[in-house]
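hey can u run this one w/ glutamic acid bound, need the structure tokens asap thx
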Amino acid sequence: MRAIDATRLYFDRAADRMDLSENMRQLLLTAKREVSVQIAIELDNGEIATMIGYRVQHDDARGPMKGGLRYHPEVDLSEVRSLASLMTWKTALVDIPFGGAKGGIAVDPAKVSVRELERITRKFVDGIHDVIGPDIDIPAPDMGTNAEVMAWIMNQYQKYHGFNPACVTGKPVELYGIPGREEATGRGVGNFAVKLLSRLGRKPAQTRVALQGFGNVGCHAAKFLSEADFRLVAVSDISGGYYRPDGVDVSKMLQYTREHQFSLHGYTEAERISNEDLLELDVELLIPAALGGVITAENASRVKAPLIIEAANQPVWPDADRVFEDRGTVVLPDILANSGGVTVSYFEWVQNRQHYQWGLNRVRQELDRVLSDSFERVWTISAERKVSLRTAAYILGIGRVGRATILGGIT
Ligand code: GLU
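ok here u go:
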């Protein structure tokens, strides 16, 4: 299944509940603009390399379009389209004044040098600078990109348009970034885990967690969960899974990755398992925080966790989601679960436009408030309309975008 078909299916499940007409569905689903540019650079060895960069601007009914930029070898237009659409529902769901967009370049950042990555990024900005900007479309980090990449984007954009730090978010704190942006998605995941448990009458100390992914989101989620007293029993990254039934030592693992190029490769204080095995462990909470499409109809029936929090985008395919719905497995959907990142991106954009530096406490407080409100609304819709948390989240997001579209007028 393609990511875009999965998004369409989830959208339709909610749209059916909302009695949305076919025309309205087409209007809301079709991207406003899709840009694809060739990026040609000279490699360090003098050879020429070319690749394609995409930016899909899905919807701007509620404000400038917003979403990350992904560097991954498997990036293609269909995936970027799907992720851009998810951003539209995500920003609406948390009620920040943005629409949705996403970008991507089919490149493996581990296989190019830092200088090559910088050239790729600057060439991409050369290709899209006239269709992005603080009031049009604001990129941010996603898989394979980080604050350093955002600094290059800002610098290159400013060569064309003059001083404008609000043109991109997720920048280094020393360069117009906001404290707390890097931890935001992981902090949100931790926050939602606490809320979910308290709604279900469960206790963190009796909740064993398996976490797939130890990148920016996974690392921070692990930190928050262990501080909140959850029992993290398995963690994985690209090098495989690390399992310890009585709990892994999160601070040791974090320290290890800092000393080993951000990888757990060679970590010996846990039993080695595969990334697939991790998904099927006997735990109470499963958090996929890496790639999309990791839980399908094929392995869904072997997933034992009664609770799943989708920290990654689209880790659960719709046919697996059906299995979970029938079985009563509670799935906190991606568009809610990982919304902490874009929420703090919004604060960064506000900060840049105010020319006023926010402090970490204020960021955390406002983030917690936005996430609590969104969680409560989704929970209520789910209970009142007897739909899954995913369908409830889509109903809330689609409803807001639909109303803004009608209010703005289609003439
Ligand atoms: N890439 C993140 C996401 O998927 C953050 C986007 C942003 O901060 O604009 O939500």
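The chain has a mean pLDDT of 97. anyway lmk if its weird
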